[in-house]
Amino acid sequence: MKVSTVINLRPFSGPVMTLLTGSGLSQLIMFAASPMLTRLYDPGAFGQYAILSFVLSFAIVIATGKFEIAVLLPKTDEEGWALVCLAGGITIIVTLVGAVVFSGVLLTVGASWVHGLGVRTDIALVSFIVLSSAVVFLSGWQCVLFVWMNRLGNYRGISAARIVQAFVMAFSQICLSFAIEGLFGLLTGTVIGLFFCLLVQIAFVIRSQKYQIPQLVIIKQVARDYSNFPLHTIPTDLASTLLAQFPIYFLGSRFSDEAVGYYSLAQRTLLAPMQLIASSVGDVFRKQASALYLQRGECSAYFRKVAIKLAAIAIAVGVAVVIFFPDLFAFVFGEKWRIAGEYSRILIVMYSLKFIVSPLSFMFIIAKRTRLDLGLHITFLVVLIGVFGAMSGFEISEPQAIALFVSVYSIMYVTYLILSIKFSKGNV
């Protein structure tokens, strides 16, 4: 069965607007819930939640074997569905093995760290392991099915799933705050939101077409054909996760949970309006650019149109953040969160570049330059660790540390943008 490909060269066409609507509503729900959540949970709880998310993000990176990235690339839907089943099966195995390993680590060398998160009883420890494993399992399957729905062009289903996740997660975290204090309230609400999102995804996938588990020989074939994805993209994504979460680790170890909490809120609030557009454009860009590249051997014109639109939006958002965010944070979240608004002024440079580059850097996958992608990530990770290692002997404030993060990350994003432009022209 051939995949049906309808190429629309307009960057903000119908599919993008459908995804924007869903992403916009989901982000609006989370943003609307934030003032209440920041009053129900203290900065320390948000800091603990951010640190745990940092730890779990490593398991989520390897959960699918990264085969879901390749789902858009095969010429037939049969091969794409085989990749979905392969990635989903790996997710189950990684979750089970990870739960055992995680338990062993927590019971031995990780006891003091768990106590710092408020896990001090056996029942709490079991709940902590179960909830953490559930986050990995649900996040893995959610990621796989979103890519499959993108291949099918089921953008309404993607939007519906995101809205359900945001509403259920926010509602659950608010309600649970009255019964479960701190980290566990946020974590349990996250699991519930992910679970309902997955239910919606499954319903849309089943309704769109009836599928069977592919034959083992087909699964083995696609595993061989796309073996470079786990070999290159897993270490790349691990390095990417370290790069993305390094500020949280550094601020937590050098300063306090409160500093992490302020940074986390600034991060969430900045990413809310920017990711809803970047992720929507990115979903459509990945499908359209892949199809164009397959047909023509290049997609430079489409790439350029998308890049210009994203840059214009990034500049507008950046100006608004610099002018309004400190006062806006104090008004919306409470005066104690004004510091997070000041952090936002520094971070907006990095997130503006990320907003532009993140959708477009899929050119590394399309052009099959995953090895170079890995090399760049490792290089910038070494640079980041080296820079902050050298700074360990100096007195440095939180804003100065964040400004240093922004400088390193900005250089990385500019490098990726230049190379993505080159790859979009083909003949690489």
Account of the 3D structure:
The protein is mostly helical. It folds into two domains: 11-226, no CATH class; 227-428, no CATH class. Helices cover 82% and strands 0% of the residues. It has 15 helices and no strands. Helix 5 (122-152) packs parallel to helix 7 and helix 11 runs antiparallel to helix 12 (338-360). Residues 1-6 have low confidence and may be disordered.
Poorly predicted ranges: 1-6
What fraction strand? under 5%
Quaternary status of these chains? single chain
**How many whole angstroms does the radius of gyration measure?**
21 Å
Instruction: Sum up the overall morphology in one term.
Output: globular
Distance between the termini: 30 Å
Count the strands? 0
Main sheet specs: none
Helix content: over 70%
Encode the helix/strand succession as letters: HHHHHHHHHHHHHHH
- Average of the residue pLDDT scores: 84
